[in-house]
Fold this sequence. Notes:
Strand order of the largest sheet: 1-2
Helix content: 25-40%
Oligomer: single chain
Number of strands: 2
Order of helices and strands: HHHHHHHEHEH
Largest sheet: 2 strands, antiparallel
Shape: elongated
Number of helices: 9
Distance between the termini: 103 Å
Amino acid sequence: MIQSLDEPPLADDDNIVNYAIDAVHEPVYEPPNAPLHAPLDHNLQNEPENPWQDPLRDFHQPSPPPDVDGDAEEIPWHNPLKDLDVDDLFQSAQLPNLQHDIATLDDGVGLKGEDLLCLQNPPRFPCQIDNLYEELAISLFLALQHSSEVAYDNIRNAVQKHYPDSEVPSLYRVKKLIHELMGISSIVDHRCINSCVAFVSPYAALEMCPTCGELRYDQKKLACSHGHKKVPRAVFQTIPIGPQLQALWRE
Length: 251
């Protein structure tokens, strides 16, 4: 029901408004010293009040360290490694096989033959290629380093077809030429087919993986050769850091 603003309010509305005004202004009776919240248990009212205690009241802070005078005697520093005898430590090592496991250049593991001689006596002059066909072959090899070996052979055959007198080296010859120029070669070692261990150092004489029990050599090829041809089932290659540094120095 919509009422006009010029009409007086209804009697019921007057009563409601007056009742609301009286309720707002009517004082609320509170007994003297009434607690904010009435206790749930009336028996607790007779208990003595427990005064609050500061838990840090009896805490004693540790005393600061005494001041160090500037005139105090300074203890000189002594290097503990100054009097260390390395030879004596080597001879008295607790591990009995420690002396035999130390790698050396003459231990027969890693670089051998000409590669070892080149590492011990590196060339001290820059690399230089005088043959144009060898330079072309090396450029093709570097450009096709992410391609298959067949790609190099196809390009080599195409060049020889159009220029019969050209002598572009084969892929095997290019790899050997780069090895001779740079002195960098990879060391090929046997490993477990599951990549558990490498058959080097203490595992060099094993024919079975000590972890998973897989055989080291291809049994079919071993049986066909009556035990004379031992072909590993998996290998890995390592490029030593020494020849790489020498090649960077030469360049």
